[in-house]
Amino acid sequence: MRQLWCLPRSYPVLPTDLVVDIQQFSESDFAKRYFSTHKTGFMFRRRVPVSQMMTWQKTPLSSPLLALNKDLSRDAVKLFKIIQHVMGDRERARSISNARLPDARNGALSSSTNSSGAASTQVLEEQRWLLNEGIMHGELRDEIYCQVMKQLNGNPNPQNVFRGWQLLCVLLVAFPPSKNFETYLKSFIQQRTTQTEERIDVMAKYCLQRLAYISRKGPRGKPPALAEIEIASDAAFNPSTFGESLDGVYRLQARNYPHQKVPIVLPFLADGILALGGTTQEGIFRVPGDSDLVSELRLRIDRGYYSLEGVDDPHVLASLFKLWLRELCDPLIPAEMYNECIESCKSLEACVNIVRRLPTLNRRVVLFVVSFLQLFLEDKVQKATKMTSVNLALVMAPNLLRCDSDSMTVAFTNAQFEQTWTHQLLNKMNCAEIDEEYVPVHGKGAIQQSSMPPHKSRQPRPH
């Protein structure tokens, strides 16, 4: 069974001597193979120890920490100045070049600094530039993480340390470190899970979750919008509706929606798809919605505002519907039940029995999703959408089941069984007979959009 970092509530502490070795890279194979050589002195040049290289400094870098080619070395030096400025270790930097930075839709982001200490627009733009460099140049990703770790190690300013951890939270929504570097980054973060000063422990535990997720998912295609970066920096203290555990999302909405038996985001999106004519749209759930509009609606939901204002394309909502399921911290079908699904996928009775045995919240979400998709299997709807039960099973199976294997061969082979399992439920499961206390209902307007209170309030960040 796969070990997910989002599951444990306690984090093991490594022996002190191993901690020193990992944190400072002094004796590690990674340091010997990948760190560049730094020297100091005028007449008698001596090599700078890796432990010293990986300690905070106020001055700029003259060369990258890791071995990079000449062109990227110049970029790495510039990256360090940006990191210093974002963390507050450096005075206002010169304007960065946006030549390689795609346009971003920034939603309702305010350009001024508010009372909760929100970052200025310039700092957000610098972070976005930093993310873009890491997305476009895979060779720079480890260097970026390494530079942030360096500035967190021995930094004399607690507020700047806090900003550095916020930056780490932001990086972990955009791209993962290399597999070679992942172990060291994980160990560095893990050792801070007991550091209560400035609430570093909260951010470290959140970063472990994000590291596990981004390492599995891989890098984004383009940098997030400024509003998403601002939210990501505070995500450890203000959990998102996306990428969390089912229990976490459900607890998040408990005060505002105490009578809802599934996360409110599902009926909101499902009802919206129906309201915008999704049952008449060819390729619904297969054709992706505009990625910028998907991101904007996601940010709106994360701020607690469930409104379709400005959204007229059901493909946007359908994409977000799948994204919410796919980004759940824990798979909707628990890992320990995955193999059983694969092995029994050809038996309807066995498939339905698995659904009955799911944890209550998981079971109700599965029932909601399957019953909603069954609306699209009516003959007249299929003629309009060109989405048969086979097509729906193909696009939805990866959002319900999550293969644990690192083998592409196993994942590819299992995909066929995942589709068969999903197809069984779509075609034959009576969702009204599975849970005595829950019968899914669709198209009834789960949320009154005209007077929508936020499901959470953004908490001020500790300083």
- Strand order, largest beta sheet: 1-2
* Average pLDDT score: 82
| Total number of beta strands | 2
The CATH architecture term of the largest domain is: Alpha Horseshoe
| Backbone shape | elongated
Q: How many H/I helical runs? A: 20
CATH superfamily membership of the largest domain, which one? MyTH4 domain
Task: Sketch the major β-sheet.
Answer: 2 strands, antiparallel
Approximately how much beta-strand content do the residues carry?
under 5%
CA radius of gyration is 24 Å
Fold-level CATH name of the largest domain: Serine Threonine Protein Phosphatase 5, Tetratricopeptide repeat
* Number of separate domains: 2
Classification by helices and strands: mainly alpha
Low-confidence stretches: 1-14, 21-27, 41-45, 104-119, 449-460
H and E order: HHEEHHHHHHHHHHHHHHHHHH
Helicity range of the residues? 40-55%
The CATH C-level name of the largest domain is Mainly Alpha
Measured distance between first and last alpha carbons? 40 Å
